[in-house]
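To: structure subgroup
Subject: Chain for Friday's discussion

All,

I'm putting the inputs and outputs inline so they're searchable in the archive.
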Amino acid sequence: MGLKTKVKEYRERAGLKQSELAELVHARRETMVHLENGRYNPSLKLAMDIAKVFHVTVEELFVFTDG
């Protein structure tokens, strides 16, 4: 089971840099890099904080896939 994310899409649409999003959610820029590349599964709190920045649900940003 893998985690697909739309964080990069939403971040770019909002005109934010990775470092700016990281600052808004009290995370490191490197965390955003790994998250966007699918190499990091966020904690529930981080996922909720990111969703709050974009005014969407966690389910809109993150989807679990088979395989």
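Points worth raising on Friday:
Strands lie at 2-5, 62-65.
The helical segments are 7-13, 18-24, 29-36, 44-54, 58-61.

D.
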